Amino acid sequence: MSLSAQDTIMPLWPNEIPNQKASNEKEKVETDRFDWVTNVQNPTIEVYLPTRSNANGQAVVIFPGGGYYGLAYDWEGIDMAKALNSQGVAGIVVKYRLPISKSITEDKEVVPLQDAQRAIRLVKSKAAEWNISEGKIGIMGFSAGGHLASTLGTHYNDKVYEKQDAADELSARPDFMALIYPVISMDDSTTHSGSKGALIGDKPSAELANRFSANKNVTADTPPTFLLHAQDDDGVPVENSILMFSALKKEGIPVTMHIYPKGGHGFSLALQDKRLKNWITLLYDWLDNLE
Fold first, then answer.
1. Model-level pTM greater than 0.85?
2. Terminal-residue alpha carbon distance, the chain
3. pLDDT tens-digit series, residues 228-256
4. Residue 135, SS3 per DSSP
C-alpha cells in the first residue's frame, strides 16, 4: 500500500492473534471529551505520514494511555500523530489489547507487550515504503501507555509470541523512547494501582512486579529516553519518572527529563495551559538532536 499524508489502518497480526480466544466481547468506543476505546479485539496500527517533501525520516510509534482498562485513543494517540506530522515525523498509533479482556487466554500480562513488539516490527518492515529511515524509529507512551512503551524499551528481546511472518525476524528494539507522565514502577509506594491491578493483579509475586518495573530492567542497551511529568500528578506519582531517570543515568543512557510544577495527569498536548502547552516544543527539540 502506497501512502502519502493520508492515514491507513492495518491489523497487527496477519494470522492468529496470540493469547486470544473467540468471545462475545465487542470493541466499544465512547465519545465525550475524547474517544475512549475499550474491549479491543482486533489490535491495529493507524498510520499518519507527513508529505514526502516534509518528511525527515523519523517515526514514532504511539501507545495511548488508559490504565490498561481503555485507550484515550485520539487524545493521546491521533492528536499526537498529527502534531508529529507537522514536524516531518511519521506518527503511528497502536490500538493494543487490554489485559482485562475476557478473550485473553493466559499470561495476560504479556498481551500488551506482544502487540507492542509486533507494532514496531511491522513499522520497521514498512520503513522503505513509508519513507522512514532505518535507525530513526522510536516509541512514545502516555501514562499506562508509557508503561507499555517502557516495557518494550526494556523487554524488546523477550520472546513473547511465535513468529508469523518476515516482519517478526526484525528487532523490536526502539531507537528512542518518549515517556509522558508514565507508569514505571509496580512497587506499591509509587505505582498507579489501577494499571498495576489490571496488568499483573493487586498482589503479584515479587518476580512479576520486578519484571514489569521498567526502572529495574534498564541495561546499557536501553534506548535514549525523554521523560515528562508534572510534580502535582495525583494519578501517577512523579517518582515514576524520577526512578526511570536514575536507572537510565546509572547505565549511562542519554536521558532528558522535564518536570513541571503543575499540570496534573493526562494533559496530552495541554493546548489550553499557557505554560504547559510548550512541552511539545521540548520534545521536538529533543527529536531534532538525537544522535
1. yes
2. 30
3. 999 999 999 999 999 999 999 999 999 99
4. coil
111: domain range?
7-288
Nearest CA among 104, 7, 101 for reference residue 50: 7
**Distance separating alpha carbons of residues 3 and 45, to the nearest angstrom:** 14
Cα dihedral 135, 139, 140, 141 in deg (nearest 10):
-160
Q: Which amino acid is at 152?
A: L
Chain center to CA of 258: 18
At 243, list the grid cell. 526512578
Residue 2 in domain: no
Residues 115, 43 contacting (CB under 8 angstroms) = yes
Does the residue 280 lie in any domain? Answer: yes
Alpha helices in the chain (DSSP H): 79-85, 111-125, 144-155, 193-200, 206-211, 239-250, 279-288
How far apart, in whole angstroms, are the C-alpha atoms of residue 166 and residue 101?
Answer: 28
**How many domains is the chain partitioned into structurally?**
1
The CA-based angle 263-151-131, given to 5 degrees, is 85
* Residue 150 domain-assigned (yes or no): yes
Tell me, yes or no, whether 82 lies in a domain. yes
CATH number of the domain where residue 70 is located: 3.40.50.1820
Distance CA 63, CA 179 (A): 10
